[in-house]
Amino acid sequence: MPDMLVRLYALPPAPPSADAGVEIRRALAYDRQPVLRWVSEAFGPGWEGECAVAFSRQPITCFLAVREDCVVGFACHDATCRGFFGPTGVDPSCRGLGIGTRLLYACLEDMKSQGHAYAFIGGAGPVDFYAKAVGATVVEGSTPGIYRTPLKNYVQEG
Ligand SMILES: CC(C)(COP(=O)(O)OP(=O)(O)OC[C@H]1O[C@@H](n2cnc3c(N)ncnc32)[C@H](O)[C@@H]1OP(=O)(O)O)[C@@H](O)C(=O)NCCC(=O)NCCS
């Protein structure tokens, strides 16, 4: 999976929301425990670890999609590396509604406001999604990037 480059100075306006029932907001400190548990269960311990770093920043660099007081999506920046977007994920039952795009814009606009001219999508899985959503382009020679094989000695609880 390659890294991708986003030109924040040329970021278009965020597309209009297609789902008024979902609020996109910056995570708050007291969201940490339920969000990390949800991320771990939905996407695994690796992304939970990256998300935990985003929660350790001030201001927190994790944004949430919230529907009826439940998290249905998350996106982080400046977690695994400075200037990196990710990880991000949307509950499978809520995909295709524009939530992932709104979370992406929330993070990128936050990075732009903090003075970044460019952002990297770290280890981009759905390359076509990022190319379409924000005009991201693949960084040549970035596979493998900074990510390495996960440690094997994780013990699943329960
Ligand atoms: C990638 C992800 C966050 C997108 O969230 P989403 O809420 O479904 O995205 P949106 O509804 O905003 O999608 C907008 C567009 O991107 C497209 N798209 C969504 N996921 C895509 C994918 N994996 N590959 C290619 N295109 C994708 C949608 O079809 C949609 O296109 P359309 O407007 O022509 O219909 C979500 O699919 C997800 O959680 N995937 C699993 C985790 C993951 O891969 N995270 C990224 C790690 S780098």
Please explain how this structure is put together.
This protein has four helices and seven strands. The mean pLDDT is 95. The longest helix is centred in the C-terminal third of the chain and has 15 residues, at 99-113. It has 158 residues and is an alpha+beta fold. It is globular. The protein has helices at 32-43, 45-56, 99-113, 127-134; strands at residues 4-7, 23-26, 62-67, 70-77, 84-90, 118-121, 137-138. The protein has a domain at 10-115: Gcn5-related N-acetyltransferase (GNAT) (Aminopeptidase, 3-Layer(aba) Sandwich), CATH 3.40.630.30. Strands 2-3-4-5-6-1-7 form a seven-stranded mixed beta sheet, sandwiched between helices. Coenzyme A binds next to strand 5, helix 3 and helix 4.
Task: Show the helix and strand layout.
Elements: E1 4-7, E2 23-26, H1 32-43, H2 45-56, E3 62-67, E4 70-77, E5 84-90, H3 99-113, E6 118-121, H4 127-134, E7 137-138
The structure holds coenzyme A (COA).
Coenzyme A is lined by residues 86-90, 95-101, 124-126, 128-129, 132.
What's the arrangement of strands in the largest beta sheet? 2-3-4-5-6-1-7
**Strands, total number:** 7
Shape: globular
- SS content category: alpha+beta
Named at the architecture level, the CATH assignment of the domain at 10-115 is 3-Layer(aba) Sandwich
What small molecules does the structure contain? coenzyme A
Radius of gyration using CA atoms only: 15 Å
CATH level 4 superfamily of the domain at 10-115: Gcn5-related N-acetyltransferase (GNAT)
